[in-house]
C-alpha cells in the first residue's frame, strides 16, 4: 500500500515539474518574442525616416499664391524679352544707318573729281569757242577794212556824180553793221574768255584739293581762301562723321543695356524653371501627394522606398505606397513634430489615398 502511494506521489510530482517547465518555456518564449518585437520596432524607429505628408491641390492656398507669383514672373519675362527684341531692332537699325552713312562718306572727293572732270571738258569747249570767236573777229576785221574802202570809194563816186546818195547810205549802213558785229564779237570773246578763266580756276582748285598739298598747275594765281563747294563738301563730311560717332555711341549704350537685359532674362528664366520644378507647380494642374522630409531624415529616403503608416506612428506599421521622386530645392516648413525645419519635398505614390491624412508617415528603405 505504501509502495503504491509512493509511486502515485512520484508520478504527480514529475507531471507538476513538466508543466512548470513548459509554462516557464512558454513565458520565456513570449518574453523573447516581446523583446524581439520591441527590439525590431526600436530599430525601425531609429532607422526609419519620418515625413510629414501633404496633399497639394489647385485650390490650396500655397498653390494659389504660386499661381499669382508665376503670373507676375511670366509677365516680367515677357517684358524683358520684348525689351531685348526692341534693343536688337534698334541696334540693327543703327547698323544699317551706319552702313548707309559709310557709303556716303567720301562722296565729296568723288564730287570734286567729277567737278574737275566737268570743268576740264568745259575748259576744252571754251577753248574752241574762244578760237572760233577770234577767227570770227579776224574775218570781221578784214570785212570791216574792205567795207571802209568801199564806203570811201562810194563817197568819191558820189562827189563825181556816178552814184546817188542812197547808195552811199547803204554802204555806210553796211559799215555800221560790221562795226556792230565786231563789237558783239568782242563782247562774246570777253565772256568766253571769262568763263574759260573761271573754269580753269575751278578745275585747278578741285585738283589742288584732291592732291591735298595745295599744288597748282601753271596759270593765273588762284584766289585766296577755299571754294564754296569745297567748304560745303567738307562741312557735309564733318556732319557725316559726327552723325556716325553719335550712332556708334548710341549703339554701344544699347549693347550694354541689352547685355544687362539678357542677364536679367536668363535669371528670370532660371527662376521660372525653379518655380516649374516645385511640386506646387504640378499641383496647379492636378492634386499631388507629397511629404516634407527634414534634412536629418533625408539620407534614408530614396526613390522606390516603402512608405509606412503606423498606429500612433509607432505600432502596427503597414505599407501604404512608395516614394517616386525627391524634388530638388530647399523648403522651410513644419516638420512631422510641428517645429519649423529645413528640408526637401518628396513625391508619394500612395496605394491607400487616406494615408495622406496621417500626421506622420515613415519611409523605410529596406
State the gist of this model.
With 366 residues, the protein is α+β, with helices and mostly antiparallel strands. It is 68% helix and 14% strand.
Describe the structure.
The mean pLDDT is 78. The protein contains seven helices and seven strands, in the order H-E-H-H-H-H-H-E-H-E-E-E-E-E. A six-stranded antiparallel β-barrel has the order 1-2-6-4-3-7. Helix 3 (107-159) packs antiparallel against helix 4. 68% of the residues lie in helices and 14% in strands. With 366 residues, it is of the alpha+beta class. The two termini are 69 Å apart. It has three domains: 1-47; 48-76 and 278-364, no CATH class; 102-240, no CATH class.
Q: Key features?
A:
single chain, 366 residues, alpha+beta, 6-stranded antiparallel β-barrel, 7 helices, 68% helix
Mean pLDDT: 78
Q: Name the helicity range.
A: 55-70%
Could you spell the SSE succession in H and E letters?
Answer: HEHHHHHEHEEEEE
The stretches of 5 or more residues where confidence is low (pLDDT under 50) are: none
Q: State the distance separating the first and last CA atoms.
A: 69 Å
Q: What class, by secondary structure content?
A: alpha+beta
Query: How many beta-strand runs?
Result: 7
* Number of domain modules: 3
**Biggest beta sheet attributes:** 6 strands, antiparallel, barrel
Helix count, per DSSP?
7
Largest sheet strand order: 1-2-6-4-3-7
Amino acid at each position: 500500500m505504501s509502495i503504491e502511494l509512493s509511486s502515485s506521489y512520484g508520478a504527480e510530482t514529475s507531471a507538476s515539474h513538466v508543466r512548470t517547465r513548459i509554462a516557464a518555456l512558454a513565458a520565456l518564449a513570449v518574453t523573447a518574442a516581446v523583446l524581439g518585437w520591441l527590439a525590431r520596432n526600436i530599430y525601425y524607429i531609429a532607422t526609419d525616416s519620418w515625413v510629414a505628408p501633404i496633399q497639394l491641390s489647385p485650390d490650396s492656398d500655397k498653390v494659389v499664391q504660386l499661381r499669382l507669383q508665376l503670373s507676375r514672373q511670366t509677365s516680367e519675362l515677357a517684358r524683358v524679352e520684348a525689351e531685348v527684341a526692341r534693343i536688337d531692332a534698334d541696334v540693327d537699325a543703327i547698323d544699317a544707318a551706319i552702313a548707309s552713312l559709310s557709303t556716303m562718306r567720301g562722296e565729296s572727293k568723288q564730287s570734286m573729281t567729277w567737278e574737275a572732270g566737268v570743268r576740264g571738258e568745259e575748259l576744252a569747249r571754251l577753248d574752241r569757242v574762244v578760237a572760233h570767236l577770234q577767227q570770227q573777229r579776224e574775218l570781221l576785221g578784214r570785212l570791216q577794212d574792205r567795207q571802209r574802202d568801199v564806203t570811201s570809194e562810194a563817197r568819191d563816186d558820189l562827189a563825181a556824180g556816178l552814184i546817188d546818195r542812197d547808195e552811199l547810205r547803204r554802204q555806210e549802213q553796211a559799215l555800221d553793221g560790221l562795226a556792230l558785229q565786231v563789237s558783239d564779237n568782242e563782247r562774246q570773246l570777253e565772256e568766253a574768255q571769262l568763263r574759260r578763266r573761271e573754269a580753269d580756276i575751278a578745275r585747278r582748285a578741285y585738283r589742288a584739293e584732291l592732291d591735298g598739298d595745295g599744288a597748282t598747275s601753271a596759270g593765273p594765281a588762284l584766289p585766296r581762301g577755299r571754294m564754296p563747294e569745297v567748304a560745303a563738301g567738307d562741312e557735309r563730311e564733318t556732319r557725316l562723321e559726327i552723325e556716325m560717332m553719335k550712332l556708334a555711341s548710341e549703339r554701344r549704350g544699347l549693347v550694354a543695356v541689352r547685355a544687362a537685359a539678357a542677364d536679367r532674362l536668363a535669371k528670370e528664366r532660371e527662376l521660372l524653371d525653379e518655380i516649374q520644378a516645385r511640386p506646387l507647380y504640378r499641383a496647379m494642374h492636378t492634386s499631388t501627394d507629397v511629404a516634407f522630409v527634414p534634412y536629418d531624415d533625408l539620407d534614408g529616403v530614396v526613390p522606390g522606398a516603402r512608405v509606412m503608416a503606423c498606429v500612433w506612428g509607432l505600432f502596427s506599421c503597414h505599407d501604404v505606397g512608395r516614394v517616386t521622386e525627391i524634388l530638388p530645392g530647399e523648403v522651410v516648413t513644419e516638420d512631422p513634430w510641428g517645429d519649423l525645419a529645413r528640408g526637401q519635398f518628396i513625391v508619394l505614390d500612395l496605394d491607400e489615398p487616406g494615408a495622406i491624412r496621417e500626421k506622420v508617415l515613415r519611409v523605410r528603405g529596406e
